[in-house]
Amino acid sequence: MQQEFYKYQGTGNDFVMIDNRQQKIDKNNTKLVAALCDRRFGIGADGLILIQNHEKADFEMIYFNSDGSQSLCGNGGRCAVAFARNLGIIAKKATFEAIDGLHFATIEDDIVKLQMQDVNAVEKYVSHVFLDTGSPHHVELRENIDDFDIKAEGSKIRYGAPYNEAGSNVNFVKKIGDATFAVRTYERGVEDETLSCGTGVTAVAIAMHTLKETTDNLITLKALGGDLQVSFEENNGVYSNIWLIGPAKLVFKGSI
Ligand SMILES: N[C@@H](CCC[C@H](N)C(=O)O)C(=O)O
After folding, report:
1. Per the residue annotation, which of 43, 51, 73, 195 is the catalytic one?
2. Which residue among 71, 82, 116, 251 is least packed, with the fewest CB closer than 10 Å?
3. In angstroms, what is the span from residue 246 Cα to ligand 1's centroid?
């Protein structure tokens, strides 16, 4: 069987995208997902996204990490909106269902603004902050993130207590301005550093606000693959109206 696919990237976080409205791909076939994402034997990507029909929303996004596990992907969500526009499913606005519920988004040129779920709990520890922005994120301020073995340090934290087998994504952060932070992320399910992580930079923006490293509500996050912005409102420690903003682009189209 020939399968058409599209490759998208959002600040260097790259995804195989498949229009699965005819349900030709079995969403439980995680071996196929891992094979397609393999960078040597497959197409190569950090994750794979199926776009499916949905009863009430414009579409459903099913996201898989490159190992076949599932979670919410912020950059993947932004790329799914760009892909849905390319398929003619949406024009400038979208609602879609993901693993953590309904999302609203807008798209203008290549810039996608994706609304994230509210964050009600931010756990502060001596060395780090932990929060869930649709995916779990450990956030740690470090001075030396430019010259640093992210894979080695990140995997120690990801597999260590208290996260253990279920794991967490791990973000190392350096403050570079009042509302600007550099971020490098080790991603669970890819089990390596990626060039950018959307739920990760969202977690970093909220964590930095909680730690009073910034008083701004519009934060610029500098990932290896480019800049993203996160805006939010905060009331008594509850974060709402959270938006992840940045580019989402088609790289190429093919069939396998
Ligand atoms: N790259 C993603 C995050 C994908 C999910 C994550 N690896 C997990 O399993 O928790 C993003 O842009 O948010």
Report:
1. 73
2. 251
3. 16
pTM beyond cutoff 0.90: yes
73 belongs to the catalytic site? yes
pLDDT tens for 202-231 read 999 999 999 999 999 999 999 999 999 999
| Residue 79 designated active-site | no
Among the listed residues 85, 36, 27, the one whose alpha carbon sits nearest the alpha carbon of residue 59: 85
3-class SS shares of the chain: helix, strand, coil, % to 5: 15, 45, 40
- Closest atom, ligand 1, to C-alpha of 10: 12
Q: Is the CB of 68 under 6 A from ligand 1?
A: no
ipTM: 0.97
Please give the distance, rounded to the nearest whole angstrom, from the Cα atom of residue 240 to the centre of ligand 1. 20
User: CA dist 151 to 124, 141, 185, 188, 226, Å?
Assistant: 24, 16, 9, 11, 19
**In 3D, which of 211, 18, 242, 25 has the Cα closest to residue 114?**
242
Residue count of the chain, please give it: 256
Q: What does the domain layout of the chain look like in residue ranges?
A: 4-115+248-255, 122-244
Cα(first)–Cα(last) distance of the chain, in Å?
8
CATH topology of domain 4-115+248-255: Diaminopimelate Epimerase; Chain A, domain 1 (3.10.310)
Closest atom of ligand 1 to 72 CA is: 5
Rounded Cα distance between 103 and 114, Å, is 7
Non-local (6+) Cβ contacts of 90 within 8 A are 58, 59, 81, 84, 107
